[in-house]
Write a structure and sequence with these properties.
- The longest helix is centred in the first third of the chain and has 24 residues.
- Strands 1-2-3-4-5-6-7-8-9-12-13-16 form a 12-stranded antiparallel barrel. The protein has a two-stranded antiparallel ribbon with strand order 14-15.
- It has a single domain, classed as Lipocalin (Beta Barrel), CATH 2.40.128.
- With 283 residues, the protein is mostly beta strands.
Length: 283
Amino acid sequence: MLRRIRNTLLLVALVVGAASTGMGLCPSSARAYHTYKERLLDTTAYSLQRRELRLGLMNLSYGIIDQLQVTTYTMPWILGLIFEDVAPNLELKSTFFDRRKLALSVSAGFLTGAIEQPDNTKIRYFILPVSFAASVRINSDVSTHFGARYVAVSGDADSQPDGNAVEGTVVVDFLQLWGMAEWRLSRVVAFTFTVRWVPFVTDLVVNGTVDAGNPAIGVQLEGDVSDLQNAFAVIPGFVFSWERANIRLGVGYSSFFVDGFYLVIPGDVLSNISPEFDVFVRF
């Protein structure tokens, strides 16, 4: 099954690459999305202008004022409905500097939710990401983007197996770095090459109590998350733009960096396939 998925993704990447070459040589009459005024937003330092709206498969964004946007990611909401518990999330992004060839931004947000298991175990989580990004316009066709994100993850759980009350909390923090090169092949096609890396991960610390009588027993454990240390992904991709619709598509190697949840899935879980996909419109 995994082999079939991997082969399908690679085939899609080849088809997209061939299509982008043709579109780059023969640009259509579609709206010119890739301009200095309307830039790529994801993995860059750029933000929406006042009252601009971006509706996408992966996230929804709105420009509150010029260079300040609010975003909510759709996947946590969808999974929250599946687990019958909402997962509210919000992110504010501000491009506080945008002059000539350089743009700088800062963003912060939160994601929270709960998962309830059939054995009366309830897990609550809270994720707090803070990011900084810089975009450099080298010339009219080529731009580079760099960023860092610090993610603090905390959670707690309570359960009553065999009539014994068990409660605990978990904490882990990690740092993500990324860089992306953007090359505009035409007015409506851009090639992107993204590299992501996790250089730092704290130990996963679990503090808990087991109430099997009187008194309760305190427990402190440390989990091994060394498989996330130095996790990385290398992702070539393309962004296509038509009259209103836009598609971002890429297939890369190694770990999967999950947008919206701000987490990292080790490469061996998905056979070292790192997908990148979004469909969105912008008004």
